[in-house]
Amino acid sequence: MPHDGRARAGVTELRASEAGAVDTGSPPPVPEAAVIDRTLTFAGAALASVYVPGARVEELRLVEAAGYATSQYGLPERLPLSGGSPAAHAFRTDRPLWLNAAALASYPEGGPTPPRAETSLGALPLRAGGRRLGCLVVVGHPAVGFESEQRSFLERYADAIAGLLQAGSGRPTPSSLLSPALRSLRIGTFVLVPDTGLIEADETLLELVGIAPDDFDGKVDTLIAHTLPEDVHALMSVLEPSGQAFGRRELEFRVRRPTGEMRWLSLICRVAATTDDRPEQVLGLVMATSVLRRSADDVSRIQWLTAALDDAATVGDVGMVVVTALREPLGADRVALAELQDDRLTVSVLDPPQPDAWPEIWRSEWRSEWPDAPVSALPTLQLALRDGRMDLWPAGTALEPGLAGIGTGGLAVLPLPAKGRVAGVCLVGWDRPHEFVPEERSLLTATAALVGQALNRAHAYDAEQELATMLQRSLLPRRLPELPGGKAVARYLPARRGLQVGGDWYDVIALSEDRVALVIGDVQGHSAGAATIMGQMRTAVRAYAVEGHPPDVVLSHANRLLVGMETDLFATCCYAELDMEEGNILFVRAGHLSPLVRHPDGSTEEVEVEGGPPLGILAEAEFPMTAVALAPGAVLALVTDGLVEASDLPLDEGMLRTRAALAAADPADPGRMADELLGDVGRREDDVALLLLRYDGMETRPIRAGWAVWRLPDAVMHARRFTARTLRGWKVQEVADAVLLVVSELVTNALVHTQGEVRVDLMLRGGRVRVSVNDASPRAPAKPVIVDWEATGGRGLVLVEAVSESFGTVPVAGGKQVWSEIAVPPREPAPANSGPGME
Q: Secretion signal: which residues (predicted)?
C-alpha cells in the first residue's frame, strides 16, 4: 500500500481553523471525485479506466478514467483487440490479468505513459449475462503488484461496473460508470484529523451509520456516539492512533441505527504521518459486513445473538434482531416473525414490509402493523408447530398457496420453543435456489431456541407496558376543551426506562366562557407511585380551580393537600389563568420551570415569573402571582424538565434550544408545532410533558354591566330598573320581559335564602343575554319536586328554567353563581324602499 498521505489520496485537507465552521452547521458534501480517489487509494490503484468495445468491434475505446494520478499518467484512447495490450488480452481470454512492474515491462502497448519502474497494472474483463462488455484497467504504485484483498475488491468493483453496462445495453454508454458502481457497493470513506476531532465523511458512510447528512456536524464524536459501548474502546484505538500506529489497520465494529437495528461495519484505515512522526490524518473506508462475524467458531455468532436478544425489550425489538441476524448473513430475501395465539399467527415483523412482497392470504389480512394469518390455512406451518421441529424446503417444493412466493428458492420454517410450548414461528425465504449447508442448519436451530425465549419475555414486557400506558392515559385528559379565541395542544412521552409511567401532568380547565386555566406539573420520580400522586394532584388542582379560587389560592390549597398526604414525594407546578377577552395572564409557579412565550413577530422569551417552593414541602408556603399580557398571535409554552434537561444537556442550554425551536416553528398548526418542539428526544431519561396555547383573541367582545344589590325592602325593584336601563342601552328591549323575570326571581332567592353580598352581572354576546347572580352561599338552589296550586312559593326557578335557553349554577370563591341565558331574536331587515304608511 502507498504511504504518501494527502496528496495521493486526493482528499480535502481539514484544518483546525475549520472547527468553527463545522460547529455552525453541516459540512459540505464530499465530492464524488474525492470519494473515488480515496477508495482506489486503498485498493492500491492510482488510476482506474473503463474500456468498452468501440463502434468498430475490433477495438476498445476509453470512456472514463478516475483517480488521483490522472494528471500523472496517460492511457491510450483506443486499443486494438488483436493487439498485445493487457486490456485486449483480458478481454479476449475473459480472465483477469495482474501484472507487477517486471511483468508489465514485457507488454509493448496499452501501459501507462510515461512508464515508471514501480508501476503495476491490473486488467479485469467486464462481463455479465454471458456477454463481454469491456475491460477495467487499474494502475498501481507498488512494484510487487496488487495484494489478494485488493484484487478481490477490484473484482467486485468490476462486477458492479459490468452490471451498469448490462442494465444500459441497447443505449449509448453512460458518461459516468465509476461513481455509480462505487455507490452500489455501499462503501463509505472518511478523512480524520486527530488533533482537531474533525472528520470528513461522505454520504455513504453517514447512511451506513444512520445519520442524515443535514444532522452531521463534522465531528468524529457524532459518529462514535452510534457505536455500541463495548466496541468504542477498540474503535478509538484506531481513530486516535499513537505515534507507533502508522500503516494499515482493520477493525470490525457495531453501530446502533436510529431504527434500533444493529449493524456490523468493517473499517480499513491507514495513518498519514507528519515530518515529526505525529499522526496528521487517518484515511479510511467503511463498508457493511456480515452481521455475525465470519469466524470458524460458531460460538461467537451465538454469543452475539444472545447478547442482542438480551437487549431486545419489546416484540418489535426481537423482530429487528431476527431480521438483522438472519437475512443478510444468509442472503435471504424475506424474513417473517409471528406469534402463535390460539389458532392464529399474529405477525409482528415482515421484512421487506411492503404488502406486495407477500402472498395474497397475508395481504388480505393486512389490517394494521399486526396482520393475522390463520394456521388452519397453512398446513406446512401447522405441521411444524405441532411437531416443534425445523423444516427446510428446497427450491421447487410445491407448498400451499398461503406460502407460495415466500421462498421459491428455498424456505426455512423455524418453530420458536419457549417454556414447553411453541411461542411462534419464523420464516426465512430465498428467491434464488439456496443450498442449506450444515453450518446454516446449526445456526437456524440455535436461533429458533433463543428467539422463542426472547419472544416470550418481550410479550410479557409489552403486556406490562400496555398496562402502564392505560394507567397513564387514564390519569391525563383524554381531550382538551375547545377554547374561544385560542387553541391548546398537549404532548406527553413517558421515560424509556423502567415502567413507562411517570409524574408529569398537564391540564386545560375552562373556568368560564372567557377564562381558562393552563396547568403543567411534575411529581418527583417516574413510577406507579409518582403516577398515583400525579392523578391526585391533577384532580385537586382542577377542583380548586373550578371552585373559582384565584391562582395563588389554588396552589396553596393543593400544597396543603400534598403535605397532608404524608408522602415522600413532592411536585412542581406552573399554573396560568388566561382572560381570553383581554389577553391577560396570571402566572403562579411552584418550583417549576418558567413558561416560554413566542410573540407574534417570532421572537421568544422566558417569562420571569416569581416562584414559590415545590408543592408538598412547606404547608404555609406562599405563591405570588405575576401578571403578563399576551397579544393575539402569541404562543404560550409550558414544559417539564424532561424536555430541556438531561445528563448530557444542561438546563440553560436546553431552554435555549427549546426557544430556538419555538421561534422556528409555524404557529399556524399548533399540533405540528408541538411535535417539532419535541424533536427526536432519543432514549429519554425522564418524562416529557408539553402544553401549548396559541392565543388568537376573541372575535366578538362581550358587553358587560354589573350591579351590587342593596339589602333593602325595594332591592328587587332597583335591580329591575338597572336591568331595564341596561337592556335599553344595548337595544335589546325585545327580551326585556324574560330577562326582568329572571332577575326578579334570582335576586329574590338570593336575598331570602342567603346572607352577605348579592351581585347581578349582565352580559351580551353572540345574540344572547346572560344573567348571573352571585351570592355568598355555597349551596345550590333546590327546585321543588311538586308544585301544587296551594303552594305559596317554589315556582320561581321553574319559571326561570322555562324562559331560559340554558340555566345552571357553578361554585365560585366564597359562594355560588346562578346563571341564565336568554336568546335575542334576530331582527328582520327593513324593506329597502320603505316609506310612510297609511292607516
A: none
Amino acid residing at 367? R
CA distance 739 to 758: 17
HSE value, Cβ hemisphere, 13 Å, CA-based, for 275:
0
pLDDT digits (tens, 9 = 90+) for 170-202: 677 777 888 888 888 888 888 888 778 888 888
pLDDT value at position 576? Answer: 94
Q: Where does residue 678 rank: exposed (0-12), middle (13-18), buried (19+ CB within 10 A)?
A: middle
pLDDT at 431: 87
C-alpha to C-alpha distance for 205 and 184, rounded to whole angstroms: 13
For residue 268, how far is the Cα from the chain centroid? 32
The DSSP string of 180-232 is: HHHHHTTEEEEEEETTTTEEEE-HHHHHHHT--GGG--SBHHHHHTTB-HHHH
Cell of 412: 426455512
Can you tell me whether residue 56 is helix, strand or coil?
coil
SS3 content of the chain, % helix, strand, coil (to 5): 35, 30, 40
For helices 438-475 and 528-546, give the axis angle rounded to 10 degrees: 30
Residues lower than pLDDT 50 in the chain = 1-24, 244-245, 290-297, 366-370, 683, 834-839
Element (H, E) at 310: helix 298-311
> From the DSSP assignment, how many helices (H) and strands (E) are in the chain?
23, 33
Chain-centre distance of CA 250, in angstroms? 34
Q: Which residues contact 788 (CB under 8 A, 6 or more apart)?
A: none
Strand order in the sheet with 688-695: 486-493, 688-695, 635-639, 596-598, 604-606
pLDDT digits (tens, 9 = 90+) for 713-745: 888 999 999 999 999 999 998 999 999 999 998
Would strands 611-612 and 584-590 be described as parallel, antiparallel, or unpaired? parallel
Written as nine digits, the cell of 660 is 430556538
Would you say 52 and 71 are in contact if contact means Cβ atoms under 8 Å apart?
A: no
The whole-angstrom separation of Cα 665 and Cα 517 is 24
Q: How much is the pLDDT for 270?
A: 77
* Rg of the chain, C-alpha, whole Å: 39
